[in-house]
Amino acid sequence: MSRQTIDYPLIFERSTKGRAAYSLPDRDVPDVAVDQLIPAGYMRQTAPALPEVSEVDLIRHYTGLSTRNHGVDTGFYPLGSCTMKYNPKRHEQAARLPGFALLHPYQPEETVQGALEMMHRLQNHLAEITGMDAVSLQPAAGAAGEWTGLMMIRAYHEQRGERRTKVIVPDSAHGTNPASAAIAGFTTITVPSDATGGVDLAALRDAVGPDTAALMLTNPSTLGLFEGQIVEIARIVHDAGGLLYYDGANANAILGYARPGDMGFDVVHLNLHKTFTTPHGGGGPGAGPVGVKAALEPFLPVPVVTQTEQGTYTLQSDRPYSIGKVKGFYGNFGILLRAYAYIRTMGPDGLKRVAQDAVLNANYLRVRLADKYMVAYDVLCKHEFVLSAKPFKVHGVRTLDIAKRLLDFGYHPPTIYFPLNVEEAMMIEPTETESKETLDAFADALLSIADEALSDPDLVKRAPHTTVIDRLDETLAARSPVLTYQASVNK
Amino acid sequence: MKTWSYLPHTEEDRAEMLQTVGLSSIDELFSDIPVAVRLGRALDLPQGVSEWSLMRELQALANRNTHVEEAISFLGAGAYHHHIPSVVDAIIGRSEFYTAYTPYQPEISQGVLQAIFEYQSLVASLLGMDVANASLYDGATALGEAAMMACSHTRRNRVLVARTVHPEHRQVLGTYARGQSVDVVQIAMEDGMVDLEALETMLGSDVAAVMVQYPNFFGGIEDIRRIADMAHAHGALLVVSAYPIALGLLESPGALGADIAVAEGQSLGNALNFGGPYLGVMAVRSDLTRKLPGRIAGQTKDREGRRGFVLTLQAREQHIRREKASSNICSNQALNALAASVYLANMGPQGLHEVAYQCLAKAHYAQERFAAAGYKRVFQSSYFNEFVLDLGDNAHEKYTELSRDGIFFGYPLGKAYEELSSHVLLAVTETTSKEQIDYVAARLEALA
């Protein structure tokens, strides 16, 4: 990329009245008098402000935009806790088969048996991978999975006649955990981490009580550390009558080695767009299936795909204790299909190897970077680890500057300023799909930036130098928001 | 020899890397997992397969489905089979878009950020509103989020939702409301439309929002202006869930008085995909901007004055506000929103008008033909491209017989409306041909 000399036009700025790219079927029915069919006052008075462009200009506009964007296919993307692994091309082809892409959700069930069978198999595979008894494929994303799981936990306690209003989260938790708890009607209690980055057991013992609905935990944590006290944690929460919720954001690290169900978790969500290779899509769509232990199965959202005695598959909605519906139709089917394809491709051996190489890659980078960066917890990690750029602060160089400088080397920077309990944090998750050469080149870049931070701090602070635009004024954007083209014209 | 397409390490690589880390075996990487919780066996999953075998297996599953272009489909009810221009897939298939994540680093994410900004501009104009967010999961969750937003804005705790709103969307709304202890009351219907007299008696100073669909679930064009006046007279917000294609002909929700407009955005260039992924469109009046859930892109400048785009107003969001956030959502349906943008830019004002016109004209042609075959429309209101028929005695048998002949004769309404147990909801789009309509009319005559 090189700096833009003129602003990249908006699609609206390419519009010329009278141009058109569309091609529709011929009108083959008699013409109608629109004003006789639409009530007075309900005919659109002003056409929507859509651009008028030719097909070639439309394609060039969006192709140009795509070149101003970094994806996994462009280069390394070690964004911590996001598991930016490679997205297999065979999945893209499979999801576009007309026998899947052109299915209407309300077709008669006998005409969608292949789709339902795939979903049923996926439910079973995800139950086996997580060690849970039943799975719902409904939630559209991780946060939606959290909310779904918490609504089930709420229903479970209510059915037992217990009023439990508090959800406990560690201070290293994803922001969605407390937000989802609030949307599900709970209040949140935050417990601190101990000196080793694990849950502070004494604080947990103090926090639990008769009002504890659940503990939400990511294991390995956002620090990339496996919570070795998990059995004791589960005992403390269960003894208090609470349930354990597993945030599956980091499940990539333990595939085939350990299962949330065996650790004592009662509810699990998985991010299929992380662990199971479905593309992140620039921010979505994803999918966040939820698995539960048998005691919570009655509360699963509807519908659930079940197999009848005749061997056919059906969408079962007659479930009296269900929390109801959490999404339209049956979940993000196109995403579910890609995850199914991944599990079929890898099998049990392949998935275990995924965890091995993901953990190996993270530890390799951790060791290679430990000389010049502070590792927040410099011990064996799982799929990711957290560096701190605190030592560079005296030179005026902050984590944000290092991240921006990485752009000049062609890398997507790590997750920065998260988790919140590490100062100047940089959270690095390489994933298993990166080669040793890629990791070495990335480590070399970060190490040379560390040298620059000492020898030429301004070079780092003024970065990036090679991207199409320089750092953007986020304060201006928030102070006087311009959120549409119309608003920018009227400004 | 077993190889792994997505795992680049050779055994030599692994050995060398282990040595750097100071370990002697791969299993030592997992020594921090207590033995008590380790899985001491292989996962019970089928063995992995090659690309060739995978594609044969998936094709075999796909072959066990009958898709809408192999049938004659009158299915709509919230998901519509429209023509998707080839340019849509050409763009969303570009991997710089689909393999990226949320644009956290604007300098290398201007593609997605500008695409979101353009999407917000396109849908805000289509819905006649001031501001839109970057999209939500789907139309159903957008309705749920709209209710929560209205309650937060008005500091009231009760929403009224019309029975003429999509039943699944109402169910999802119900789940959101239970979490937040919001009271949801259903507004009765009269002749397939909102019962305005009933609505008047339900309104009061505790109502946060009146929620309606336009055209409604049965295709009817509700009197949105009148409902807006009624809601506003009591200080309640009006939430309108719209069918985007219809807005090529119909007045926009904003012009009719909506405070919050939402939509299932699937019909804008997104494949049916057996129900998802789709996108939830949400747009509001400008004074509600800071109450919006989800991502929002905004225009700004770089240090040298170049125009650029960033995610903005993030003080509303979960990664900053945690439990005080306006919603727990931390993503959008970016790729689906991109498809919607490409679709709208491809259609232009003229194309959108034409597709809406064809839907209207073909639906009315079909309705007249089916009436002539003995199946008259049940409700009397004006409608856009969906209408309800009563199949009468043996309705289920008739529906099944048509289905066996490759005719998906609409959505059986008995699933959601007890009083409409022998009724079907039919949708007609530009993809339905006159020939198909004539053929089905003849089949109906033979049934009757």
Plain-language structure description:
The complex is a heterodimer of chains A (491) and B (448). Chain A is built from 16 helices and 13 strands. Chain A has 491 residues and is α/β, with parallel strands linked by helices. Chain A folds into three domains: 11-67, no CATH class; 91-345, Type I PLP-dependent aspartate aminotransferase-like (Major domain) (Aspartate Aminotransferase, domain 2, 3-Layer(aba) Sandwich), CATH 3.40.640; 347-476, Aspartate Aminotransferase, domain 1 (Alpha-Beta Complex), CATH 3.90.1150. In chain A, α5 (113-130) runs parallel beside α11 and α6 packs across α7. The two termini of chain A are 30 Å apart. Chain B has two domains: 72-83 and 348-447, Aspartate Aminotransferase, domain 1 (Alpha-Beta Complex), CATH 3.90.1150; 86-343, Type I PLP-dependent aspartate aminotransferase-like (Major domain) (Aspartate Aminotransferase, domain 2, 3-Layer(aba) Sandwich), CATH 3.40.640.10. Chain B has 14 helices and 16 strands. In chain B, α3 runs antiparallel to α12. The radius of gyration of chain B is 25 Å and the shape is globular. In chain B, 62% of the residues are buried. Chains A and B meet through α2, α3, α4, α5 and α6 of A and α1, α2, α3, α4 and α5 of B.
